[in-house]
Amino acid sequence: MKPFSDQAVRAASSPVPPTGLEAQARPVVSIGNVTKSFGSGNQRVVALDGVTLDVNRGEFVCLLGASGCGKSTLLNLVAGLDQPTTGTVDVHAQHTGLMFQDPALFPWLTVRGNVELALKLGGVPRSERRPRALELLEMVHLGDFAKARPHELSGGMRQRTALARALAQNADVLLMDEPFGALDAMTRDRLHDELEELWSSTGKTIIFVTHNVREAIRLGDCVVLLASRPGRVAAVYDVTIPRPRRIDSPEVATMAATITDQLREVVGRGSDR
Q: Does residue 151 contact residue 164 with C-beta atoms inside 8 Å?
C-alpha cells in the first residue's frame, strides 16, 4: 500500500486499472467496493459493506478489528472460499495459501507427512516430496521433529507445522486467520520473529487477521482497521517503525494507543446502531 506523506492515517482509495509498465506493479490483491451479506429478507445480515482495498506484491498487511467486523469473511473472499454479494475481488497470483488459528493437522500423519500431503495435493512428484518437506520444516525450525506426531508437539510447534504446510502450497499470497491467537505470549513472540524472517526471505505477500493491536503493528507494513456492523474500512495506518520491532517497544506502544483509541471509537459507533 502506497504511503501518504505526512499522514499516519489514510483512507482507502478506489483502484485504478494499470496500463503499460504500470501493469507489472499492479496490486496482487484488489478488493473493489465489496459487499457481503448472508441470508435474505428480515434475516439478512450484512457482514461487509463497500470495502475497497489494494495489497501490493510482497506487502505484509494486517487486518484489525473487533470480533464480528468481517475480518475472516474478507479473508475467505480473497482465498476464493466464498464470493462477494456485490463488488470485485481480484487476486493476481497463481496460488494462495490459508492458515487458520487451529492448525488442523492430521493426527495419524507425522509432521513430515502432513507437509508431504500438501505437496501431493499440489501435484509435486513423489520423488520430490520428502526433500521439499524437510526443506520447509527446516525453514520453520522443525527439522528435528519430522517424524513426530502432532500430539507430541507443543502448540507453537503445531502452528509451525501448519505454516510449513501452507508454504508447501507454493502460495504467492499467504492468508493467515489469527494463527497465533491461542498461544501464550512468549511462544507468540518467538513466532512473530520467525514469521517476519520467513516473510523477509521469501518475499511473499501476507494478509494477517488479528484482533491484537500490538501484534498488528509488530508485524505489518500497514494496519487496516475495520469498523463493524457492517464491516467497513475505517482507516489504514502505515507502520514506519524500523524492523526488527519488539511488541513491547515504546514506538509500538505509542502507535497502539492511537489505533486503540480509534478502534474504541468505531466500536462505539457500531454499538449505537
A: no
φ, ψ of residue 3 in degrees (nearest 5):
-75, 150
Torsion of CA 136, 113, 75, 153, to 10 degrees: -80
Looking at the DSSP bridge assignments, the partners of residue 271 are: none
First to last CA, the chain: 31
- Condensed to tens digits (0 to 9), the pLDDT of residues 14-27 reads 334 444 444 456 89
Give the number of residues written for the chain: 273
pTM: 0.85
Structural domain for 133, as ranges:
104-171
Q: Which of 109, 245, 225, 218 is nearest to 168 (CA)?
A: 109
Pairing mode, if any, of strands 205-210 and 9-10?
A: unpaired
Q: Three cell numbers at 233?
A: 474500512
Cα dihedral value 18, 22, 25, 27, nearest 10? -20
Domain count, the chain: 2
177, β-bridge pairs = 209
Q: Mind listing the pLDDT tens digit for each residue in 161-217?
A: 999 998 888 888 999 999 998 888 888 898 999 999 989 988 999 999 999 999 999
Q: Does residue 256 surpass a pLDDT of 60?
A: yes
The cell numbers describing 149, all together, are 506426531
Residues 267 and 160 in one domain: no
Is the distance from CB of 207 to CB of 77 less than 8 angstroms?
A: no
d(CA 223, CA 227): 13
Contact present, 192 and 215 (Cβ < 8 Å): yes
Q: Are residues 264 and 176 in the same domain?
A: yes
